[in-house]
Every structure is written in structure tokens, then in C-alpha cells.
Design goal:
Layout (H helix, E strand, L loop, with lengths): L5 E8 L7 H16 L4 E8 L4 H10 L4 H12 L2 E9 L2 E2 L1 H9 L9 E7 L8 H12 L3 E2 L4 E3 L15 H18 L15 H5 L8
Parallel strand pairs: 1-2, 1-3, 3-5, 5-6, 5-7
Antiparallel strand pairs: 3-4
Helix pairs in contact: 1-6, 2-4
Length: 212
């Protein structure tokens, strides 16, 4: 691991109640990711979409992000990793969750490691991760970790179930995959023209133009 580097993990949670199982799952995923990052400095920033509902609706109408929403969008855009957790509504992610990622600036999640997770009352909705969330973040050009985490009501116990490993084991595996992607990602993307811009005077003189 890279010594001395601070990693920022943005946790986006779309739970509607307080407290909610969605926020509980988000917190457990964030804590597991911190553990997997080991001795690295980790800053976890939580974005509660429930608190941004009115700003999101206004943004849809005006195209302008108000203060708290603008800050949340900036948090996600500059994060080294994103943990995105939604409750399941009508066999898909919630409308609030979709609204937020609809207004995320295009390209801001490109190359960003993302861990996707969802909660529901029954395990019958578990495939929402693969047919709804994973395609959404692939479209946004994020790097989605292989293990997605789904938690149904019966998953909040501590024992193994007939369906596979307990929830804690899935959380640890997903966090380990996310941490590996975060550490492997360079601090700045190679070839990014904004990291080392050519002075304007040089461009005017033709010195910054590539050979034809």
C-alpha cells in the first residue's frame, strides 16, 4: 500500500427512514472497507439522500444544484471510492437513488471504484444488483467491484444460512475487493490533460500543439 496517502470513501445511502436497514448496511460496508485499507488514513463521508430530496426535485426542475446537494455531488466526484446503497422499490433502485445519480456530472465517476449494495424485505429481489445497479454504474464508467451485497430481512442474524455465507462474510469480501481497487488506482489518472496543462502563451505560439 502507498504510505502516507489519505483515501476518501463517499457513502451514498438512499434509506427513507431513520434509522434504516439501508444506512445500517452502508455503515457496515464503510467500516469493513476502513479495516481492509489497513494502516492507510481513511476519510468516510456519508451522503444521506433522504436529506437532499427537496434539493434533488428542485435540481430536476431548474438544473441548478443548491448548497447541500452541490456539496454532496462534489463529495462523490472527488472520492477515491464510492459505496452506493439503495432500498429496493418496484423491483429496482429507489427513485431518490436514481435522481441523485442522474444529476452527477457526466464523467465524474469514470474509473472510480464503486461497491453496490441493496436492501429489501425478501431475498427475491437480490438480482436487482445485477440487472439494475451494475448496469447503471457501468454506464457511468465506474469500476464496479465483483461482489455486490444484498441484505434481506432474514440476513440480519449472525448465523450461516442455507443460501450461502452470512451477511458479514459478503460484506468483508466486497470491502476487500473495493480496498484492492482503491489502493491500485493511481492518485491521478495518467494522461489527464488537466493535471499538467500547457501554458496559454505556449499554445498561442504553437508550441503546445501535437505534431500532425
Amino acid at each position: 500500500m502507498t504510505a502516507g496517502r489519505t483515501y476518501t470513501v463517499a457513502v451514498v445511502t438512499a434509506g427513507l427512514s431513520d434509522p434504516s436497514s439501508t444506512r445500517l448496511l452502508a455503515d457496515r460496508l464503510a467500516a469493513a472497507t476502513e479495516v481492509e485499507l489497513g494502516a492507510q488514513d481513511v476519510l468516510v463521508e456519508v451522503v444521506e439522500l433522504r436529506e437532499l430530496a427537496h434539493d434533488l426535485a428542485n435540481n430536476m426542475l431548474t438544473g441548478f444544484a443548491a448548497g447541500p446537494l452541490a456539496q454532496a455531488l462534489e463529495t462523490v466526484a472527488r472520492a477515491d471510492a464510492v459505496i452506493a446503497v439503495t432500498p429496493v422499490f418496484s423491483a429496482s433502485y429507489s427513485g431518490l437513488f436514481k435522481m441523485f445519480f442522474d444529476v452527477v456530472e457526466e464523467g465524474s465517476l469514470a474509473g472510480t471504484p464503486v461497491l453496490i449494495a441493496a436492501t429489501a424485505g425478501t431475498a427475491r429481489h437480490s438480482l436487482v444488483l445485477e440487472y439494475a445497479l451494475r448496469p447503471l454504474f457501468s454506464y457511468l464508467k465506474a469500476v464496479v467491484v465483483p461482489t455486490a451485497v444484498f441484505a434481506a430481512s432474514e440476513d440480519w442474524g449472525h448465523s450461516e444460512t442455507s443460501r450461502g455465507p452470512a451477511l458479514s462474510a459478503r460484506i468483508e469480501r466486497a470491502a476487500r475487493e473495493l480496498a484492492a481497487l482503491v489502493v491500485a488506482r493511481p492518485a491521478s489518472a495518467p494522461g489527464d490533460p488537466f493535471q499538467d496543462p500547457t501554458p496559454f502563451e505556449q499554445l498561442l505560439g504553437g508550441g503546445g500543439l501535437p505534431p500532425r
